[in-house]
Structure formats: structure tokens, C-alpha cells
Amino acid sequence: MVTNNNNEKKYIDKFYDPNFSAYDFMSLFSAISAEQKVYSFNEEELNKFIKECKDSSEFDNLLNDINFKSNGISYYSEELDEAITKLKFGNILYTITPQRDSIIYIFENTPFSKMIDSRRKYLDEATSFINKYKEFENKNEYKRKIKRNS
Description:
This protein is mainly α. The chain contains 7 helices and 5 strands, in the order H-H-E-H-H-E-E-H-E-E-H-H. The longest helix has 27 residues, at 123-149. The mean pLDDT is 86.
């Protein structure tokens, strides 16, 4: 039996408009990365890092609209997946072999300044997020190299 409160919440959720959506986050992430001449990212690593940040309440202004679920093996975000898909349809992001790896590429000829302008309020925090993400990626790559060489 569905209560009236559940129906009301579902109705309100349909019209939820966050201040900074997962799409805004991925747009800014892509634009800043490209400005830094980084034209790819590992989606699985990004998911892990965002989950870690959310668990420790870091970058709340950027990550508030991104929620995670578990499929029993790993965590995933429907909001993040949808944002990445929209950016692929917009010819901003692309994959070469999506069934083989989780590397997502950023088209180099995209007008990134336009993507940043409407989100300028979040630019410093997003840049800080990306710098911390790079450290996270480098640390994990170092761990993988050590594991392979053992």
C-alpha cells in the first residue's frame, strides 16, 4: 500500500530542479579538464572518487545531485550516467569501445568557455575537485603498478 506521503514525494521529485545538477557537474568537469589539456577520464575511477567525496561530505555544492546505488559489485550513479549520456549526444564526450573499458574522451574542439560561463560560480570548487581527483587517480595508478609488479 502506497501512502499519500510517498505519492506526494514522487510527484515533487519529478519537478526537482537542483541548483547544480549532475549535468552541470559533468559539463564543468569536462570543460575544466579540457582547458587543462586532459581529454579523457576513467568513469569507474571518477565514480569511486565522487562516492568517496560524498561519504566524507566533501564538495557538497558540486556533488549534491549525484546519488549512488550498489549493484552488489560496485557503486553507480544514475544521475551521472544520464549526464554523461547527454554530453555524448551533444558531441562533447565520446567512447571508443564502451563495452571494453571505462575511458571517456572529451572532444577537443568544443567551445568550453560557453560551458563554464553559466557555471562560473562553481569554477573554483570544481577546479579544486579536479586537482584532488588527479591525485586520487595517480595514487590508484601507482597502487596498480605495484600490484602488477609483485
